[in-house]
Write a structure and sequence with these properties.
Strand content of chain A: 15-25%
Order of helices and strands of chain A: HHHHHEEEHEHEHEHEHEHEHEEHEHEEEE
Distance between the termini of chain A: 44 Å
Number of strands of chain A: 16
Number of domains of chain A: 2
Oligomer: homodimer
Structural class of chain A: alpha/beta
Number of helices of chain A: 14
Shape of chain A: globular
Strand order of the largest sheet of chain A: 10-9-11-8-7-12-13
Radius of gyration of chain A: 24 Å
Helix content of chain A: 40-55%
């Protein structure tokens, strides 16, 4: 397959050439932004006609402001250190062998996503920088805009003397995608991004390893010894900044010892137009709170809704998170040192925070520069996946004639 | 499932308790070695009756010497650093957040293997040390010995107050195994060890990620500028030490400039009872060499046979390795600095060596203390898989009330 061929060239491309492709792509976005806006407007119009959900239409929009954000992202990814060829874990063995691990590209990545054309830019940039070839299968609702961005990638690659097959925007139908998901000799990893159903579908049918998360049922646990001001800031930030992203919090757990504080919390949330659904204890302490159903505890609202539950202690909080959470991002708010420590140890989520907003589950905030998605899997990459997550490694061994046995 | 339950306890077990289990297991092997030898003898007898291949019978044997080796391995794994809870990549972000990655166990591991009862000891020790629960499905030919070792594990776990479900030796049939391979909510990773067919079978049917390799078609490339003494030592060691292991070399590539040396090489191999199959150039230079067929270049002999090919230059050698190799372990012998460098960069195998035997593709030689197998996959773990390969990580973030936006 052409992507496999191209991946061999990209794997060996030098850093400066790869960066030049990203800068050239940024230039194309700058110079030909109006074409993109126009193609996107047609996509949006078509989506409107077909009655796409407003939340999805919102994601589909790729306007001047979003294009500028992508240009900045491209320049930033170009400025990141090249992971390919980095050597780490180097050591000299007693027999004199020098051993290290060298980061190498994964090979060919298939990205399957809905709506968001910005993934077409961002995914391409990160995959290329990490030395991989990439096949981008965006949603049909973003067809025109993605096709145009695909041509820009071809142009940028060609200008820099790299194979244009290294970033391929494809638009074929479901059956062809399902066929692709069986080609484990041609594709090394699949990154599906989108709703739970899309990801379940891909998992069912893929014989290729995935980097994925299904959903983000994230918690803020306000524990014994919490600073209430910090707690409120964190609860509000974890919901309001971007209610529809996977790392927005869905549930607040509050120690029963802090029940007196519940009316303040509920009223602050209401002032910020957040609907509250509470357990019986919460309903008793704050007025007019809708009772939460069993389903609420495992629901990713992706909306201005919080479920709130009173817990008797940290045991119950951690148990609740283990049972209902999705292993994505969970926070404890407390000034109690031992409790913070225990939460960090015992909560097995991809990102566990003390006294900080769930919004920091993000490649840039955690120091990776940029991310291609979040993983809640335990194999290979967990949490935000940056350049390093798009690489593998090989052992490199420098000897001087060493053999193991007597010959 | 019971293994999932047990994995939660093992994940939190302290280092000393885990080490105590390993030492207790070593003690049981020491004290009750004769029972093991007896059970194994019955297995071997049964295998003989059923006409198992001699190579497999050889692997099945678990005698006093092999038991002693396992006792030493257990003590050594007990002495290794505990990977669980290690923090790495720690950094302080500009907003004051302290961010790090904490190693955590993978969860539940399923190991599927043929014959070799030593895997029942070794796999259990490494999985436990890395905080995982383990299900061991050995071959039916090793049933009695494995069952006994399974009882020892239970005994050792119970004595140390850990759940006996943490290491389970199961002996059910193929259908039940295939059923297990669908339980991706109960098992986190599958490690198949054995013949190519076994591994293909597991891959076909598994919905759970695998850590695996199919085969080892490993090369020694004797390049321009090679020290012939080192080359010969490495070629002999890479085959003779253990001809039946995956990292034994199968093919020697020799630069055409070194053709005069071919008769010496062939005669040295013959003296060591190694059969040689050569390309036309090799057959022309050395007498009585059997011509290699196209199939020879991709065959893992696992036997005292070498295929030898003359190549015109490094390009041809690297191309040959890329085309016919299995991405396992490949060696260049040369004193030419730039050539060594190029080989290291361009050969994309799990272990790439300069002037050293393929035998060093081994967890202990490469500094991991011990290994649970070799991976030629690019996701998660590549090359020898040690304790670290049996862990995942989570991001841990220590804040002081940080939020991302204005609330």
């Amino acid at each position: 397959m052409r992507a496999r061929e191209a991946s061999r060239t990209i794997a060996r491309a030098d850093t400066e050439t790869k960066n030049e492709v990203l800068r050239r792509m940024a230039m194309l976005l700058e110079e030909r932004g109006e074409e993109i806006v126009k193609a996107n407007a047609q996509d949006v119009e078509g989506a409107g006609r077909r009655g796409l959900r407003p939340a999805l239409v919102e994601r589909l929009v790729f306007d001047k402001r979003k294009i500028q954000a992508r240009i900045r992202a491209l320049m930033k990814i170009a400025a990141l250190a090249d992971p390919v060829g980095q050597i780490y874990g180097a050591d000299r063995r007693p027999n004199g062998l020098m051993v290290g691990r060298m980061r190498v590209p994964l090979g060919v990545i298939l990205m399957i996503y809905e709506a968001r054309p910005h993934v077409t830019v961002n995914g391409g940039a990160l995959a290329l920088k990490a030395g991989n070839a990439l096949i981008l299968k965006g949603g049909s609702e973003a067809k025109l805009c993605n096709a145009l961005l695909g041509r820009f990638w071809m142009d940028a690659l060609e200008t820099c003397g790299l194979p244009t097959d290294a970033v391929q925007v494809v638009s074929f139908g479901h059956d062809a995608v399902f066929e692709l998901l069986k080609q484990d000799d041609l594709i090394d990893v699949v990154i599906p991004r989108g709703g739970k159903e899309l990801i379940k579908d891909v998992r069912e049918r893929s014989r290729i390893p995935l980097i994925k998360h299904f959903e983000g049922v994230c918690h803020v646990y306000v524990a014994h010894g919490a600073d209430k001001k910090k707690a409120l800031d964190i609860i509000l930030d974890s919901k309001l900044l971007m209610p529809a992203v996977c790392n927005a919090a869905e549930t607040v757990l509050v120690d029963e010892a802090l029940c007196e504080w519940l009316p303040d919390l509920v009223s602050a949330l209401r002032q910020n137009k957040v609907e509250v659904r509470g357990c019986p204890v919460v309903c008793r302490h704050a007025s007019d709170v809708k009772p939460a159903s069993e389903d609420d505890w495992s629901t990713e609202y992706l909306d201005r809704i919080y479920s709130i539950k009173a817990v008797s202690d940290a045991d119950e909080a951690i148990e609740h998170i283990t049972r209902y959470g999705s292993g994505h991002t969970d926070v404890i708010v407390t000034e109690d040192y031992s409790l913070a420590n225990r939460f960090i140890q015992e909560v097995d989520s991809s990102v566990v925070l003390v006294n900080a907003s769930t919004m920091f589950c993000d490649g840039e905030s955690l120091g990776m520069g940029a991310e291609v998605g979040i993983s809640t899997d335990k194999l290979h990459a967990r949490g935000p996946v940056g350049l390093e997550g798009l690489t593998s490694y090989k052992f490199v061994v420098f000897g001087d004639g060493q053999i193991m046995g007597q010959t």
